[in-house]
Amino acid sequence: MLMGKKRKMGRNIEDMTIGEKLTLTEKIEDKDLLLFLGLTNDANPLYIQHDYASQTPHKKPIVPTIMLTGFITSAVSKYLPGPGSHIIGQNLTFPKALPHYATVEFLFEVTSIDRPNAQIEVNVEAVDEKGDVVVTGSVTVCPPHKLERFENSALDNF
Questions:
Q1: Which phi-psi region, left, alpha or beta, contains residue 88 (left: φ > 0; alpha: ψ -120 to 50)?
Q2: What single string gives the DSSP state of each residue in 16-50?
Q3: Region of residue 49 (left: phi > 0; alpha: psi -120 to 50; beta: else)
Q4: pTM
Q5: How far apart are CA 53 and CA 60, in angstroms?
């Protein structure tokens, strides 16, 4: 029995195959940006000030690249491989800035599985509604580990 509420875990490395894919679509709204920027205390005018951004090559405020990275981390934690997994490495580039109010589609694909080291490699690409690539790269993920059952005596010290 696990301590606390039992949670469904993601898939173990033994259950994964090369070529698995996941597609997610996110619409970037003001509330999302404001929550993120408030949490990180980031007041970069390129992210929030329309008058400033209009004088840059972007012409509009853009989404912070670390926020796009957050969507990737969330997809790994929720879906591929899911709860209990975490990213241990990343190699991401952001070839085009994403403006506010954009819709972005993420495509994830498992490209390698290293069972002895309990790691998988997941390629990531994200495109905007025009089909332009806004994120490309890969993340190295440690899938959830198989957990041992706790026996009652194991919890005597709690």
A1: alpha
A2: --TT-EEEEEEE--HHHHHHHHHHHT---HHHH-H
A3: beta
A4: 0.83
A5: 5
**Do 140 and 132 touch, CB atoms closer than 8 A?**
no
Beta-ladder partners of 127: 105, 133
pLDDT of residue 148: 66
Cα(65)–Cα(117) distance, integer angstroms: 29
Reply yes or no: is the peptide bond before residue 144 cis, omega within 30 of 0.
Answer: no
DSSP 81-102: S-TT-EEEEEEEE--S--BTT-
82-117 pLDDT, tens digit per residue, is 898 999 999 999 999 999 899 999 999 999 999 999
CA 43 to mean position of chain CA atoms: 23
What is the tens place of the pLDDT at every residue in 2-30? 455 666 888 888 889 999 999 999 998 88
